[in-house]
Write a structure and sequence with these properties.
The protein is α+β, with helices and mostly antiparallel strands and 158 residues long. It has one domain: 3-Layer(aba) Sandwich (Aminopeptidase), CATH 3.40.630.30. It has five helices and seven strands. The protein has a seven-stranded mixed beta sheet. Bound molecules: coenzyme A. Coenzyme A binds next to strand 6, helix 4 and helix 5.
Length: 158
């Protein structure tokens, strides 16, 4: 598998071409509808943060924050990042169910980590459900540590 990275210094267009037709790149605003569909199919969709409108607002705030994996021009996976030099985070690592088990989740996680690091992140955190065997296995293999603890998510609509 040939990997070619194209990281501009300070630029916005970031793509990684893997083989002939597999591409890791920034999501464009007009693709947010596809992301909501993938998240719904994978059971990760949260109406408060994953509407098309909310995802577009996120891209307007940080165009590099959502990475998609496209095969033959079609989006088959995604990952959402929040960059903050204090502590960054990774969310919604998702591969379309039909396309799982081909290494795409690993490629997306790897790309998200690389990009966050290149922007200055020193630590990245995330949340995985206890029963999510696949995701836990993927992150463990990538060197993420687990810190089991009883946490109750809280939120407030502003
Ligand atoms: C978790 C998810 C992103 C993994 O994507 P994927 O493309 O199927 O994973 P990959 O093929 O890249 O596998 C990466 C590694 O994890 C391991 N893995 C993946 N799923 C696994 C499973 N169910 N059980 C055990 N190991 C698993 C693979 O063996 C692989 O290891 P390797 O690198 O040594 O070969 C995908 O299953 C998914 O989208 N799930 C639904 C959404 C979700 O729960 N996301 C995580 C939110 S925290």
């Amino acid at each position: 598998m040939v990997v070619r990275n194209a990281y501009p210094t300070g630029g916005k267009l970031i793509t990684t071409t893997i083989g002939e037709d597999l591409l890791l790149r920034n999501c464009s605003p007009d693709e947010c509808r596809t992301l909501t569909a993938i998240l719904q199919t994978a059971g990760l969709y949260e109406s408060g943060v994953d509407s098309e409108e909310a995802l577009r607002a996120k891209l307007a705030h940080d165009p590099e924050s959502i990475i998609v994996l496209a095969v033959g021009g079609y989006i088959r996976g995604m990952v959402v990042t929040i960059f903050d030099p204090w502590a960054s985070s990774l969310w919604h690592l998702t591969v379309d169910p039909i396309w799982q088990g081909r290494g795409y989740g690993r490629l997306l996680a790897e790309e998200a980590e690389k990009r966050l690091k290149s922007r200055g992140a020193r630590i990245v955190i995330g949340y995985v459900r206890e029963d999510n065997v696949g995701s836990r296995a993927l992150f463990k293999k990538r060197g993420w540590g687990e810190f089991p603890m009883p946490i109750i998510p809280i939120e407030k609509k502003l």
